[in-house]
Design a protein that fits this description.
The structure is a homotetramer.
Chain A: E1 2-15, E2 19-23, E3 34-43, E4 49-52, E5 58-64, E6 67-80, H1 117-123, H2 131-144, E7 146-147, H3 158-164, E8 166-167, H4 169-181, E9 187-194, E10 203-210, E11 213-217, E12 228-234, E13 243-244, E14 254-262
Parallel strand pairs in A: 7-8
Antiparallel strand pairs in A: 1-6, 1-14, 2-5, 2-13, 3-6, 4-5, 9-10, 9-12, 10-11
Chain lengths: 267, 267, 267, 267
């Protein structure tokens, strides 16, 4: 069963000096979502170069001029109402994995999987290798790491999240990714939108490769939920910043996100 | 100077049996155009898979079900009002060409450049190698090959176009490409929209790589004209069919194309 | 069952003026062959740049200086003694083909598959779609097109080969490819070495994608034979010239090829 | 000025249970080195699949069987006797960087560049942005972090190396990379061979992108030295492990490395 969603995102900056920016705010077509309508407005209307990075993400390069700078995107997307739950789906032997997923077993900036071998094995003790292990890790995160959208911590790595025992969505995803990779399960970060998220914001979760395909997991939600729009994939948040200004931090003046359910396909 | 264009395209088919289709109807962001709004409607609303081919084109795969089948796309695009004219820009020595453009010196299905070495050299005799050669070829096409949007010939290659001495836009582009490649100038096919084209339709032209960048040439127009929206690049029409059904010909029941000038940037 | 082969190739040119060359003489590792030893000597020892093209081939760029110019390569390769024969393997429905093989259904410079729909269907009449169709086409080539290594014709396309009713290995491959593509079977050109080929030379054959994988076919051989070393893949000979000088023809002064069977693995 | 080197590497494992391995031991052709001869022996002779990863590295996949397992490679390589020193080469403005180098400004597993902004700016205070900054960082590493090939620490990240004040070659490279990226200079890890290294071993260093090209830096050497053979590039050691077994550590029983100077080109 599919559903149609309308996502909207507006980010406002106050720029002091001309600032090169790389944005990643265009959702991508995947096997499970179809972008039927899209709008991408930049004000003022500076030149933009788009390229596709090594993960297949659409990236927009520009130089933001001094003054108010606004990025406003929207998309009408067909996506899955429910995510696939594949209890019992087996672990994929490493020698059988596609070349393209191997990179997602490596440790990365915010997912030091090499430090989680012991904890990961404790969590999944006696559980059949594969999907059920990832589900157990996801459950462990829900039981042990508080989802706190107002977490006071900044840009924690999985090791730090495990110590803080709380975090925003990206923090929980980072710890989930690190734990899965510690079991040699390819796992990647997803940035996107989730219909019905409270409070509404850009969201992050993770996908694990078991039983021959990617499966969605979201430790911030008590039940498996569909209604997701994928914007970008990467090893972790370092790869999928929705805006990256390379230099002194550039906090937006405001950021608003909305996701609506549409009751029919666009005409 | 830039301009904002709104392109629209609607193609209707009557499908007899389920038909796998590959469409190439999503304009792409390039160094010289920015897609600010886009819509891509398929009726009935069958599943679509999008992938990016080896030329960077966005391709949509689907299976069209029996009955009326409609594809309707539109885009709001910022593009250049004028195309760059670089008289005197030099020929790029082959050893200095980027790896990525080398393939555009090879002969291809509809551009048998290996058969045009003599004619190409006749046309450009005494002309400085580079941009001016391509301009001379473009002028030669205008003088010698009639642009006939109602050409009775079907899917001619450059050799056949040269014999027929007339053709549709793609035919003229194929001959232009074959002649340029015969001079070792990388040349590629472009499919897209041209504002003000008479009669309005999807359009084809070519780009030649001289003076270190791609330059636009259009043998159907008496003056260099901007107002173009690039949909796809390829060696020739074989690579950039806007719809490809692999099997018995599938002529659309109707096809309508429109390009409007917008008087301001989208909000 | 595997076997170890030693291939050697030496090409000598007499260069008049500095000549940019692109060589494609380094065999590639594939799912079915492993390059254990390799040597690539260029005399005189000019700078070489290697890149990997869109087909995954290893290409060597250089500028050959005036005078005698020699390229000498050798490789020790583990390859399959027998090629896979998959009688009855089914035709892959287009909608199920991997994105990466779609391009091999398109017509190309020397394989005008769009002109062979009728002939292809005549040849395979009543034959189960898939492997058996390709085998029938291969058999038809053996029965109808003479393999003549001394063919007087130069660089024929499939249409011309079909008229000439004879050709060198690449000509037979081109016609085989055009016929298979006319049936919507992805088919690609292979350039490489064949152990036991008479007379010994660089060789060309084709691969068709049926039953979910590439299968080898060689219309110059009366029986399916292994002992092959793949150097390069492409749509047709335009993509896989072992040397390409882009400009006036540059016939080698001499070219020698040898393939030996080794009786054990290299140490 | 170029030189010819012969590199040799042999790694022996004792395998208990069948172990999937990914090796990265085949040097790659680059703009500055040419592999003229190569040998890659695996004993016992199990099947190997080679693929090219997203960094352009050649990776070999196999399953090592129980018992003694030996990998033995060698290569004859033409490389530069001296590395380019470009004092004064300017910092490349971010908006002018090629898309392909942007990823090398991101923090990575062992290079937490986001934690080094302050230290990096202290080190390069008053130094002209660009090459000279990287040279100052390299000098600072030589002055402050001891190169200790027998360092007792294991797999440190840049933060940990900075605390330990000593490390093996990869540790120094990681800290250098983190410091450069903190200045928005794209920087990548290199694994390879260095002629004359004491004690001889596989080696690691880094390259920084300034003045429009990659430049080599090696904090383990007191003077800029050429005689290098590049095997692989990556963000850091996570990407360029010469062997990766994904699971319990698999220390080699022995590993020997040699690099010889050849007094003439191979014939």
């Amino acid at each position: 069963m599919n559903m149609w969603l309308l996502s909207r995102c507006e980010i406002r900056f106050e720029i002091i000096a001309p600032t090169p920016l790389i944005l990643m705010l265009r959702p991508r077509n995947t096997a499970h979502q179809w972008i039927s309508r899209e709008s991408y407005i930049i004000k003022p209307n500076v030149p933009v170069m788009e390229f596709i990075d090594e993960y297949g993400n659409h990236c927009q390069r520009l130089v933001a001029p001094p003054g108010q700078f606004i990025v406003r995107t929207s998309a009408v997307v067909q996506t899955e109402r429910d995510i696939l739950v594949s209890s019992g789906a087996p672990f994929d032997e490493i020698q059988n994995l596609p070349n393209s997923v191997l990179t997602y077993m490596l440790p990365s900036r915010y997912c030091e999987s090499d430090r989680f071998v012991e904890l990961a094995h404790q969590i999944v003790e006696d559980i059949t290798p594969g999907y059920d292990q990832v589900a157990a890790i996801n459950q462990w995160l829900q039981n042990n790491i508080a989802f706190n959208p107002d977490s006071p911590y900044f840009q924690m790595s999985a090791v730090e999240v495990n110590q803080a025992q709380q975090g925003v969505c990206r923090d929980l995803a980072h710890l989930g990714i690190a734990l899965c990779r510690a079991l040699c399960i390819p796992t990647r970060m997803v940035v996107g939108y989730l219909y019905g998220l409270e409070p509404m914001d850009l969201h992050a979760w993770f996908e694990a490769y078991v039983g021959g395909r990617w499966h969605t997991f979201d430790p911030t939600q008590s039940e498996p939920r569909g209604g997701r729009i994928v914007v970008a994939y990467g090893h972790d948040a370092a790869d999928v910043a929705v805006f990256n200004q390379f230099g002194p931090a550039l906090p937006p003046v405001s950021m608003s996100v909305a996701v609506e359910l549409l009751n029919k396909a666009p005409e």
